Amino acid sequence: MNNKIKTTLLGGLLSASIASPLLAGDFASPIQVVAPEAADMFSFSAGYHSTYVFRGANFGDDLTDWSLEASKTVGSYDLTAGVWQGNVNTMGTETDFYLGASKDLGFATLDMGYIFYYFDGATAGNTQEVYLGLTKEMVGVEFSATYFYDFDLNDTSYLELGASKTLTLAGQELDASLTLGFDIEETELSHVQANVSKSYDLNSAVSVTPYVSYSFAIEDNDYAGNLIDDEFVAGVSLGFSF
């Protein structure tokens, strides 16, 4: 499940976050999209993740994914549109299509968007989400709060709180993030996830980003029928812009 892709991918976009739109905070999830600079109108990434963890739940091992994103600044808005696809042997293929817009409000940055989750040609699991979030940098840390609403299949709401910072360790810069999930319907915290990644620029357009992540289950619960449990994940993504 792509949750908002944070493109380094992951976000991901990871994308992740390595994060993909399966990836605000979770890798392989629409991770929250981080738009490239104005000159970079398109970006592509592909990666491998030892486990597909989305909102704290295990959706299978050995996830391979790719994403393609276009971005453009129109007036005071940064617009993004993209597709993320992931494949897990035990689950088949998931393809997420997403649109996003962000605007600097002065006191914070507003993010909003739409995600369509498509599963292997079968309509039974397909669904749609919209999201709205705020991001604010304070004391060198970027804090975020994002609300997701599934208005289609599940009619559920989910809140994600995040904090991220670039750390310097032994002369190396590491990107660290912490994500906390809250199930609004169950009125309970679901999990907390820590992620550390290191990006290596191969040239001005291509980079490779390995990462490790650990998701700690706060409550014994499930998400979309998949168990929320303690999970360790490692992976790597290759990305380039053009």
List the defining traits of the structure above.
mainly beta; Porin; 12-stranded antiparallel barrel; two-stranded parallel ribbon; 17 strands; globular
Structure, explained:
The chain has 242 residues and is mainly β. It has a single domain (21-241), classed as Porin. 0% of the residues lie in helices and 69% in strands. The strands form three sheets. A twelve-stranded antiparallel beta barrel has the order 3-4-5-6-7-8-9-10-11-12-14-17. A two-stranded parallel sheet has the order 1-2. A two-stranded antiparallel sheet has the order 15-16. It starts with 20 loop residues before the first strand and ends with a strand. 40% of the residues are buried.
SSE layout and pairing:
Layout: E1 21-23, E2 29-30, E3 42-54, E4 57-74, E5 77-88, E6 92-104, E7 109-119, E8 122-138, E9 141-150, E10 156-169, E11 172-183, E12 188-197, E13 200-201, E14 206-217, E15 221-223, E16 226-228, E17 231-241
Parallel strand pairs: 1-2
Antiparallel strand pairs: 3-4, 3-17, 4-5, 5-6, 6-7, 7-8, 8-9, 9-10, 10-11, 11-12, 12-14, 13-14, 14-17, 15-16
What is the structure about, briefly put?
The chain is mainly β. It contains no helices and 17 strands.
